[in-house]
Amino acid sequence: MIDVGEIARRYGGAVSGGQALIPAIGHSNKDRGVAIKPAPDAPDGCIVHCFNGADPLAEKDRLRADGFLPARKAKAELGPWLPVATFEYVDATGEVIYRTVRREPANWPGPGKRPKEFRAERCEGGRWVAGMGDCDRVPYRLPELRQAIEACRPVYLVEGEAKADKLAAWGLPATAIAFGSNGWRADYAGHFAGAKVFILPDNDAPGRDFARKAFSDLSGCAAPAIVELPGLPEAGDVIDWQGSADDLEKLCANAALPDWLHQPEAGAGADKPASAFRFVAVGNLEFRPPEFLIDGLIEASALGLLFGDPGCGKSFLAVDIALSLATGTPFHGLAVKQGAVFYIAGEGHNGLARRFAAWAHDRDVSIANAPLFVSTRPAQFLDAASANAVAEAVEGLAALHGAPALIIIDTLARNYGPGDENSTSDMSAFVAAVDDLKARFPGCTVLIVHHSGHTEKGRARGAMALKGALDFEYRLERD
């Protein structure tokens, strides 16, 4: 296993959360933009995250050159990446909607497990094309899932299609969702309405996170339970498990909620997990006065929207808000609560840089060390993997500079992902992804920059599901 302490010492970095945080190639010694985390089952035995635009492959090559990783195998030695399994997702009638294809290199000498990747494909014009497009997302083995629910049989939810196929071969109604632990979406829950659902997580942190999210979303329409399989190795799953179908059914019959269900992954939990739903007497409600990031204007722990016509100055105002908070500068006479700001920029990065510089010049305030961080590319919040990557990038920098006080998404359209703004279900999924990001950082506010409607200038564009989720909303107009 790699030695994160030695890596941190070699490059003048630090160790935090079990990972080495080091300067990226060509960056100053104060930079901590590269995180190296041990992962025995990953290629090379580690995972490299870059938070400042650095190239993770180049960072790995540096580690190889300095003897921390084995020499890279020539691409020809690995051979081509070949499809090894295909999993079709069908509608209730059995018609194929899309499929996922698992690919692996033809030759893999190790160390670690053979690398894999999954690709989604949809059929258009008689041929398979990359991506799901606007296809309806459905659980794997949907017809069997519906038959089981109609017959009042319990169903089993796992992270991958091969695991569901194993359980189905045992005669158990089983399903999965595309892209495993990163693929769960709140709108999958409706397919399980009225069912008893046994969630079987992998034995690792992503598996537990998947189980938490699925359990939470299913609790509103089904009867979920989480079943931990005994004797699994780290990162093991039902395919590794040595039990039988009878063993599994006995485990499920006596399933109890795991201690970690209502606890953050790295924290120690209370002795008894909190109830998923409860009431409190009105006299016992705790009143807390609002806490503002900008006095009287933007609250902490809120979801807000700034909308207006194109060219009305929305991004200028967002930059003003961001830099005021990051530098602790009063916002047009209003007191601010200084804190880290993360700006998810969908476009115009060069223009943003000019605006930041102009703001600093106009206010005569240095922004050299301001805790304001700008993304190098848009997010895709309707894509679970992209949304998770955003959260991981924020968490990596938050460990060094403090949790975000404010996250700005500019604009909704550029960071939306593969969906329709006018679709209630797509907009609800977008809001759920943003809420999940906000929930990771207590006290954080998310401000979404958006366009006004094409014909109704007094409201934001798209489905009303967004408006219903907001804590505050501002419309910007030119004088």
UniProtKB/TrEMBL annotation:
Residues 300-470 form the AAA+ ATPase domain. CDD domains: TOPRIM_primases. Pfam families: AAA_25 (PF13481). InterPro entries: AAA+_ATPase, P-loop_NTPase, TOPRIM_DnaG/twinkle. This is AAA+ ATPase domain-containing protein. It comes from Novosphingobium arvoryzae.
